[in-house]
Hints:
Blueprint: H1 8-15, H2 30-37, H3 40-57, H4 74-85, H5 93-124, H6 141-149, H7 151-192, H8 203-216, H9 226-254, H10 269-286, H11 293-297, H12 306-336, H13 354-390, H14 395-398, E1 401-403, E2 411-413, H15 415-434, H16 438-466, H17 473-505
Antiparallel strand pairs: 1-2
Helix pairs in contact: 4-9, 4-12, 5-10, 5-12, 5-16, 6-7, 6-16, 7-8, 7-13, 7-15, 7-16, 8-15, 9-12, 9-13, 10-16, 10-17, 13-15, 16-17
Amino acid sequence: xxxxxxxxxxxxxxxxxxxxxxxxxxxxxxxxxxxxxxxxxxxxxxxxxxxxxxxxxxxxxxxxxxxxxxxxxxxxxxxxxxxxxxxxxxxxxxxxxxxxxxxxxxxxxxxxxxxxxxxxxxxxxxxxxxxxxxxxxxxxxxxxxxxxxxxxxxxxxxxxxxxxxxxxxxxxxxxxxxxxxxxxxxxxxxxxxxxxxxxxxxxxxxxxxxxxxxxxxxxxxxxxxxxxxxxxxxxxxxxxxxxxxxxxxxxxxxxxxxxxxxxxxxxxxxxxxxxxxxxxxxxxxxxxxxxxxxxxxxxxxxxxxxxxxxxxxxxxxxxxxxxxxxxxxxxxxxxxxxxxxxxxxxxxxxxxxxxxxxxxxxxxxxxxxxxxxxxxxxxxxxxxxxxxxxxxxxxxxxxxxxxxxxxxxxxxxxxxxxxxxxxxxxxxxxxxxxxxxxxxxxxxxxxxxxxxxxxxxxxxxxxxxxxxxxxxxxxxxxxxxxxxxxxxxxxxxxxxxxxxxxxxxx
Length: 506
């Protein structure tokens, strides 16, 4: 029997009251009058009202979709977002500001923050189809695109999303190797002097990071990662604050603010444009988290409605990250001017105190351990769902085995997860070793994902969700907004690809 499809009267009549043809003068069944006289009818009626309410809105153990009760809050969402946003990108912002200058640099940072906030608001309303409170849940970005825009655009969105996530993980491997190498170089410079030939490779350290990520990939899904995100967010605040403090210290010691309105000078206009376009890509990479927004939103408890909680969390996280971004970018450029390094903490604009540089780079590595998982768990989840759907009777795909290692609590292992996730980590690590170009890789990734994933698809889904009519004022404003972001993405992609090709050929 479908309780949800029945109203209260039909529920009572079908379940409580036998069919009698005779009624009293008030139209009440004799049996109902008798039951009421001993007080049982009210209790039975209340029980079925509660049953009907549980059917509609879930229970204390399960949500309305039958899954385990979600427990995420606005603050756990903020931790996830900050872990996803503040990462490798923040360290390149001083260099990006140096290429654009004192006017364009901060303005582009603020523009990207505004764009990310708008796109997150649009996308958070698409978590539940049509109705933000009772509509069907869309568990992932691709689920939402499929429901609102159809299968054809789902393939395009999925390809771009997974490419962006895969690229972000590759960039994190590159950054980790750079940071671990920087720790060794910092200690060497402290002992031997700043002109000492302290040269170290980073391939081995990338490989070590890959091994760590294979172990971390035993975490089943994003719902079990709140503690990882909290630790990673604390680490991101730590190294961002150290970079900011060292920048302020250097500005004070210099007694002047370095840099210019037009940024770093070049020998010709073409070189200047290439660097400026690459800087646009770097900044674009530093902000958007919309590619995993719905996955984060799917961890939130309800009530209140998930879209309201997600909008609150997005605003808090973006305000925090924008403050840190502006401070790190501006004080980094003010400290070093035209000599601003591509990576603020590993490019050795700062040498002392060496132990603080070491600590900051260690914080970066710890943050990237969690950041890698935040991005890769979306791909892991998609692979798990595909395997279960494709091979529902396979023990290799679906069975869980209990494993107990010395000094560690028992945990469950799935052979399909183990093989797929290990292969995934190995592939990102190998690609990072092959193309270890920090700024250029960030620029390409940012340009590829910025417009289609953070702007185009959220805008198109919002049109369907809110039934926005073509050529209405809201439709025109959002179309212009999307077109401007498209131009920025194209410029960033061209500049960053040119940078990678130049580095590889040089």
